[in-house]
Amino acid sequence: MVTFVSFMTVVEMRKVTKILLKALSVTLLFLIFSPIVLTLVVDLPSVQNFIVDRATAIISNKLGTTVSIDRIRLGLLGSLRVEGFYVEDFQQDTLLYVDKLKVYLSNFEGEKGISLRNGSAKGSKLYIRETPNGVMNIKEVVNTFVKRDSLRKKGDFALKLKDVKVDDFNLIIEQDEHREPSYGIDYGDLHFENTSAYVEDFELLRGQVKGRVRNFSTREHSGFTVQNFTGYFLVDKGVVDLRDFEIMAEKSDIRLRSLVLKGDSWASYKDFIHNVNISGEVYDSSVSSDDVAHFAPKMLPWNLIVYGANISVDGTVDDLNVDVHELEFGHNSLLSGKVHLRGLPDVQKSTMTLDLRNLDSDEMDLSMLFEGITGKHLPTKVVSMADAAGRIIAAGKFNGGFAACNANMLLTTDVGNVELSAERAPIKREKGEVPKSSLNAVADVRYVNLGELLHNDILGETTAYVSFDGVTSKQGVSGDFAARIGSMEFYGADYEEVEVSGSLNRKSVTATVTSEKAPFNMTLNGIADFNSEQPVYDFRLNVREADLVAMNINKRDSISKLAFNAEMYAVGRTMDDINGSLSIDGGRYYYNVDTLSTGVVRLVARSSEGKRSLNLTSDFADATFTGPSSYSD
């Protein structure tokens, strides 16, 4: 009996097992063939038309405008293919067109939204235009969508993109009024063409947008080209945060470690200049003025590239700190410094504090920089002096603006060093007076070889201290100046402790030069006035003793000394139109065996139309020279 029961139990178990296996087989077959059958059903023209009609109806209703789709295909594992997706704006013009879109759909885990992954979009066009009522067309459509969307509460919708490739995307942003510049980008008519990018990660969640894009490239129809734009981004509640970006243009390669725009909220951006803090860091970057000129056309002639740039910024536009840790330009020039800018964008009222740590350059690079920025060549004499100076190294500080400032600089060259300082400040004025500013300046010249600098063999090393205390205005510069020449080499002779003092009144100079040490003991007083149509010269020279041997003028005699008084008064610009006189009195010449003395020697020059004359009178001879043409003839 027990054996029979056991046998019946085994038989029943086998039946149950067979039933379960059959049910499992049917389930598996259903799971395998259902997507295939569904795909085949969806591929049927009638089903395709139904899906397209329903999709376009839903989207059209939400956007309040015409939407059409040529083809939709739902595939296995949530794949979606869309062809010919078209959205019209309220002016019956194209707003958006996507030729081909392929993505995989899934739910946004833990959020209300969708996730698109492993997709591509090709042949897309987005036309953003200003409408006749002054509103951008895309804003009209989006506002309609928000009003009609049942999930319009902030944060209710989320979107995620992952590994989506965009090819041949064209974006047009057009305002009603075009600037039509002769060169550069027209911000009223932007055309970004043939854009491609790879969206590695993108997430829109509760108002926050973040992600990473790489290999972004585009061309604006002005000619500006972005060859590569790669990096991380985050936008959230008044914050724009870019990290590890590389931006490659046609001639520039900018590496951005970070750039953060931070406001208390998006409302802060209404007053961007004062309320949005900017902090960022650029490293090992090169920037070409040719690329920047697309945004600032005045830089087009500069033809300048800076490279090896390591720069950090921090602050608001009207209170900005810029630290140039290192920057190279030209063939062999370096720049390092820090600047604090205050009051931008009003340049006239802005001020800055500059700490120029190092500027190391030469004539070639400085000439190229000057010519690029100004469009003019440096004067030939300046180029010659800069070339003779060799390496030019500058360091200094500047504080102030157009109205008031102070500065100091140490200039080191191959031919000597100069330390400069200056201070400028406005002077209080009465109503109706011309604006004036005080100007105080000092130059400490240290062993500068003027012979090498000016390519003049008779000059040598000079040490001097020069100062100026005066006033500047639109009418010119006036004030007092002084110089103490500690040492100076001239024609192989050394001169020490030469004192110079005088005043400047616009184009008139009054000066006194005194030397009380050998080899040239003298005093010179004079005026050179260029304020009138014809320059006026009035000089008095008292040579107490000139040692011609020590001065290397007379190399034949062992003793050769000269003393005399001289006066000169002249009016005119050239020798051919000059009128004036030269008088020499009390002349004494000492030499090895005797002393020679002279009385008054006077030379008078007169010039009139078609006639020139020179009249010489002295104790030993009188003579008159006349002629109808120039003295050179």
Short description:
By secondary structure, the chain is of the alpha+beta class. It is built from eight helices and 31 strands.
Radius of gyration: 43 Å
How much β-strand is present in the residues?
over 45%
Globally, the shape reads elongated
Helix content: 10-25%
Average pLDDT, all residues: 85
| Low-pLDDT segments | 1-8, 26-34
Structure class:
alpha+beta
Helical stretch tally: 8
Number of strands: 31
Tell me about this structure.
The protein has helices at residues 2-42, 45-63, 137-148, 272-275, 289-292, 363-374, 380-389, 450-454; strands at residues 67-74, 79-88, 94-107, 113-129, 158-174, 189-205, 208-220, 225-236, 239-249, 253-262, 277-288, 305-316, 319-329, 333-342, 351-361, 392-401, 405-413, 416-427, 436-449, 459-473, 476-490, 493-505, 508-515, 520-529, 536-547, 560-571, 579-591, 595-598, 601-608, 611-617, 622-627. It is α+β, with helices and mostly antiparallel strands and 633 residues long. The chain has a 31-stranded mixed β-sheet that branches. It is elongated. 10% of the residues are buried.
